[in-house]
Amino acid sequence: MSPSVAVVILNWNGKSFLKQFLPGVLLSEYDNLQVVVGDNGSTDDSVNFIELNFPTVKILKNDTNYGFAGGYNKILERVEADYFILLNSDVEVTPNWIKPVIYLMQSDDKIAAAQPKIKWQLNKNQFEYAGAAGGFLDIYAYPFCRGRLFNVYEVDTDQYNETEEVFWASGAAFFIKSKYWKEIGGLDADLFAHMEEIDLCWRLKNLDYKVVYCSDSEVYHVGGGTLQTENPFKTYLNFRNNLIIMQKNLPAGDAILRITVRMLIDFIAWWHFLLSGKPKFTLAVSKGHWHFIKDLAKTAKKRNKYQKPYSMHKGVYKNSVVWAFFIKKVKFFSNL
């Protein structure tokens, strides 16, 4: 029999997405599959809707909204399977989206996590923001994707159809071997949401495990289902969490240098928001930096004794993607 797989959808007031996309998940072509909806303290009637319409779906409940990271940690404590797939509720899957990724991961015990090709559900020829064809980090740990640099989204013309190792896999459709999820301790609940999957992948890579992109599997993501792109709280989380994961995962001396430069780059974004008449976003950057500094001691306790030199990791771009995009006007990953 094939390895057991649990598709786990973390739901928070997402009835409309469940109604639209859960039927497709249940039609997935895989012979050893369970589908779980973990409800993260929803206040709509999501749970009743699932119970009435999808009796084969297992429902696990959290007593409140613990965010993406904490919510998944608490739900997955109660799930048994060889593989976990963390799937956003706003993702449309294709019938054969599971098999190619599991087959790839089974081929190498060192492969801990993976993602499929992720395209935009509203325009299925175009790559989507959260993952596209695999995640990368630049020299200052700025995240980006093959197929998406900042607000430029490439059309999929099979240019990224090779399967290869990347730095991080998207949390929108995140495959992980359960033994490595347990070994690494799951997601960092203090991050709440955004970049928690990058932190998890970085911790795995520091332990010499691999993260891969599987081009033979394809899903379609709506995006922004919980927090819209233009949201000051999302901006706060992104700026704060990026600094936290750098402190956690970089070698000590390297962390000091790269974080210092990164905060200077963030200051440019601070001025951009201010001059663009977006004071809430300016405040979000300031709050992100302040909370990072305030929690330096707390974050230091989370540092693992294993930190590989940053440049040794697969999926690290050895230059600044910010400089390449805004100054050199590079708009496509293939031109970096």
TrEMBL record:
One Pfam entry name: Glycos_transf_2
Signal sequence, renumbered to the chain: none
Keyword annotations from UniProtKB, A to Z: Glycosyltransferase, Transferase
Transmembrane segments: none
Record-annotated Glycosyltransferase 2-like domain positions: 7-129
Entry's Gene Ontology molecular function annotations: transferase activity
Gene3D superfamilies attached to this UniProt entry: Spore Coat Polysaccharide Biosynthesis Protein SpsA, Chain A
InterPro entries cross-referenced by the UniProt entry: Glyco_trans_2-like (IPR001173), Nucleotide-diphossugar_trans (IPR029044)
Superkingdom of this protein's organism: Bacteria
PANTHER family named among the record's database cross-references: GALACTOFURANOSYLTRANSFERASE GLFT2 (PTHR43179:SF12), RHAMNOSYLTRANSFERASE WBBL (PTHR43179)
Similarity field: Belongs to the glycosyltransferase 2 family.
Record protein name field: Glycosyl transferase family 2
Organism annotation: Pedobacter mendelii
